[in-house]
Amino acid sequence: MRKIFLLFFFCSIWFNALAQRQVAGRVLDSQLRQPLAGASVGILNTGEGTITDEGGRFLLTVPSETDSLVISMIGYQMRNVKLPRTERDITVLLQTTNALLTEVKVTGYETNRPLMETAGAIGVLHARDINRFNTTTLVPALNLVPGVRMEERATASYRLSIRGSSLRAPFGVRNVKLYLNEIPLVEANGTIPLNLLDAATIGRIEVIKGPAGSTYGAGTGGTVLLETLRAPAGETSAEVGAMIGSFGLLRYNATVAAGSDKASFLVRYTKQQLDGYRQQSAMDRDVLLISGQLYPSDKQTFSFHGYYSDLYYELPGALNREQYEANPRQARQLNVDQKAALNLNGVNIGLNHKYDFSPQVSNSTSVFGVFSFLNHPFTNDYERNTNQAFGGRTKTTYKTVIGGVGTRFMLGGEWQRSFVNSRHYENIKGVSGKLNFDDEVTLEQGFVFAQAEADLPKNFIFTLGASLNDMQYRLDRVTGPGQTNIMENRRQFDPQFSPRVGLVKVFSPQLAAHGSISAGFSPPTDAEIRPSDASFNRSLNPERGTNYELGLRGNLFNEKLTFDLTGFQFQLNETIVSRATSTGVVVFNNAGATDQKGVEAAVSYNIIQAPTLPVSLLKAWSTYAYSHFRFKDYQRDDQDYSGNELTGTPPHVLTAGLDAESRLGFYLNITGNYTSRLPLNDANTVYADEFVLLGARAGFKRTLSQRWQTEIYGGVDNALDKTYSLGNDLNGFGNRYFQAAPGRNYYTGVQVKYLLVTR
């Protein structure tokens, strides 16, 4: 009898073992590919499960008949994962939803930490923030971040300013570093043409405010990290969309995406046309994005992108106050006569490889190439440029424990070489005439950086970093006025040292404080050293600045209310300012120093957040920036502007919004903005008026028969039909300061997506 019982007992164990299996896996953030600790992994239709460890890993014993797991985490979309029949080790990617500060992870300063544990003022935007507007431009989305001001001087002519950094730039973006998928996004002339990017191709944005030279090199304003859209794991799809709107807006796009746990690929084409709000302000842009990621193992990742853009837009020119008030839609007559416009073709190619040699040592290396071709008839000349740039970036990270303190060291470098062939002709009503001068400009710049982080007792996190930067320009004037031989000019800047120290105190999961001191510099761009009057400015020096910052982040009321408050003081020396000569040519010089103090705040409250209710989300939010920016020791000729307000910076900017979503698929986004009056010249004798903007977007999303996903939407911008100037010409020649922004305008569109494969 005993033998029979033992036989039955062992058979039961054997059959039970056959009826079970072990499943191991990792849970990662779909965008950052960072492990998610504390994610819930449950067996479908049971109460059993586990949670992931610090590396995002889990091990779970499941019944043999179980074919699905449920993966969930606060701030991420819940996902049902079908278990493969053969594999026992799976990777699960979760996509963010309305992530809270405690869950939002940032890549800024190369920390890959939650925002609550990061020392620095950082704004994070996701695709849902970009899609609350019409996606024809990044302007309204980036202006949601307090302290950021993006302007549109003409259709597709942008300036991006972080705490007043780029408002005096001749064109493009300066004092700010931009990266696209960890690849430096830069033109050979030192500026960044944001107009080449299509807003709808961007899936995530991080804005680091203030000098970030310890890890990103030159840039006193800050750094913007852009990530393109990625194909969701386990999904192969085709998508088409179209939009029409006021002032001749026509836009359509097509996307093909394929994603799995091991790879993802995306191809997207977008065509956008616009007649323009003003005379001489039409635009036409074609954008093609090809991107992909390969994950051959848990240890390594390959990613790549190719970005091509063909852009044409007209330049209406600035108006004086009398013209602006009489008819803001008119153009400057000289711009019309000279057919002022810009035609730009650009290609940006990047490749990145990440490898984890061990849990302690990892490396990330990128290489890139940038090519662009510019045809630019302007009022006083016709410019043709050929640009090319090559470079790379690498960083190695080492994690260890020293004296019981978790420590992380990072060492890296970035280098690029740029070449511009710039030819300036007479402009004869939009046709190039006699060659005035032919320049070949070579720029070499690079920096090495190091950083150390330590997780100190009492929940303190300490960061110390620095970079050493080097840059030189070489100008070969092949042809010039009265010139018979090639003229060579060189400008070598002294190596610049940019340190940074930061400290975070995490009081609880609901509250953290941070402080930092950072130094940075911004070298002059090619357009500033070599203005269109054929001169070469040898005396122009880099801007140098030091930033002091304190901040507080947290949440209250069971994480319904989140807040982020920062105060800063930035001292900038050798500030570069612009002025117009008697012939209207813009030239640049250093103007002493500026003193920039400010407060930035962001708050949001989830009134309703319940997926099962008819109204699944009701959220109110607001951001505010106060800027007390003044010239400090600024004298030009016999005029002393010391103590004046910094040109182009509004003292107060308040943005607020209301978001609503329903379980049935309806949604509504309302956004309002108040911008106070701002000075348009250094003398502070001319100001742009304050303005209030109101806009909204509403739509309906629906999934049909598990394969088709549709979205129908419509919206209005500047619903109050306010007359305002967004992209002002500062210190405008002939008192022409105003670039009128569009009045009330509408748009409507549709997106249709078909899932070829889904899991």
UniProtKB/TrEMBL annotation:
Signal sequence range: 1-19
Show the InterPro entries listed in the entry.
Beta-barrel_TonB, Beta-barrel_TonB_sf, CarboxyPept-like_regulatory, Plug_dom, Plug_dom_sf, TonB-dep_rcpt-like
GO terms for biological process? iron ion transport
Provide the coiled-coil residue spans. Answer: none
Its localization reads: Cell outer membrane
* Residue span, TonB-dependent receptor-like beta-barrel domain: 291-718
Q: How does it sit in the membrane?
A: Multi-pass membrane protein
Give the matching Pfam families.
CarbopepD_reg_2, Plug, TonB_dep_Rec_b-barrel
User: Quick check: keyword Protein transport in the entry?
Assistant: no
Q: Which GO terms describe its cellular component?
A: cell outer membrane
Task: Tell me the domain of life.
Answer: Bacteria
Q: Which UniProt keywords apply?
A: Cell outer membrane, Ion transport, Iron, Iron transport, Membrane, Receptor, Signal, TonB box, Transmembrane, Transmembrane beta strand, Transport
- According to the entry, every stretch annotated as the TonB-dependent receptor plug domain falls at 115-223
Q: Classify the main location.
A: membrane
Question: Member of which family?
Answer: Belongs to the TonB-dependent receptor family.
Annotated protein name in UniProt? TonB-dependent receptor
